[in-house]
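BUG-360 | component: ligand-complex export | severity: low

The export step for manganese (II) ion jobs runs without errors, but we want the raw record kept on the ticket for reference. Input record follows.
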Amino acid sequence: MTALTSLVRRLFEGPLDLIGDIHGELPTLQALLAKLGYDEQGEHPDGRRLVFLGDLVDRGLDSPGVVDLVRRLVERGRAQCVLGNHELNLMRGKSKEGSRWFIGKDVESDGDDLRMRQRPVETDAERQALLDFFATLPIALEREDLRVVHACWDERAVALVREASSVIALFDQEEERISREIVAQGLEGRIAAENAGLVREDLDRLKKTSEQFPFCEAIGEKEVLEQGNAIRQLTSGPQSLVGGKPFFVGGKWRMSKRDRWWDGYEGETVVVVGHYWRSQHTAGGLATNPDEPDPLAGIEPTAKLGPKGGVRVIDYSVGLGYKRRSQVEIEPSLAALRWPEDALVFQALVAPTGDSVRGG
Ligand SMILES: [Mn+2]
């Protein structure tokens, strides 16, 4: 059931504004909230309330500021928030693109913009306060007409998460189950053989040294199984084997790609997710790597997804705003889905003022 401590909780009743991934873009969030009619305390004249879809942090310039704002609104009962994969990574002590502000050291894939300008956490107490807040967040929220999760609604995973109260405990339990499954399927021997073949050909999975990196099926099957961890699946979506050529992203060659899980969503209840970057102006998704298969390929900017149109993906790539000093041809924006109106409200990226950003 949706007990207070369950990781699946009851979504607010009444009119809502659901907001996708923010990634530290505080001025853009503030501008969107004002545009939607919220005051500084998160009060709305029509009694509307906010729902944040996770990925509050990383990449952008003021992750601590975004969390402070969201936490304040949650504590005042004006907002709810689910956990995203970026918060999950910080809870697990894993670095991710754009997490230098939190981990205090460079992340290999980060550009100079991030190293120089992100507002960092100042003290261990501040870092712990962020982790304490993340630990209070549910994985999913639900009511009769709406389901909210960061990346994917999957009944098997939701059923597991419904019975759990600790994200990390369930994550670890799922890792153990998957490790046993990898052994049971005899994947270890096949992976060792594939790795030996790569060594013979002088190929390194962590280096983009070859355009013709071979597809390694067993390594891919392991990736797919690992992504089936219920917590991972709900916060970053399922994966399936690439149909051929591997691609290089996040510092390694990948044998699996993100799935179009919404094509199999037959539920009657609308699901709202963020996570998958799309553009307000052009069809398809936005990937940092053009070689990466695009799960949103060919899909119009505001199209509803799935056979019954029951899935809303509302991440309009404000997380790409950190490339603001590079050549960015897309226009990152932050969107809100107004419910029950089922209408999108867009806020274009707002550049921060110099004052709001301390040196890193
Ligand atoms: Mn995400």
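Assignee comment: Attached the raw record above. Residues 21, 55, 84-85, 150, 275 surround manganese (II) ion (CB under 6 Å).
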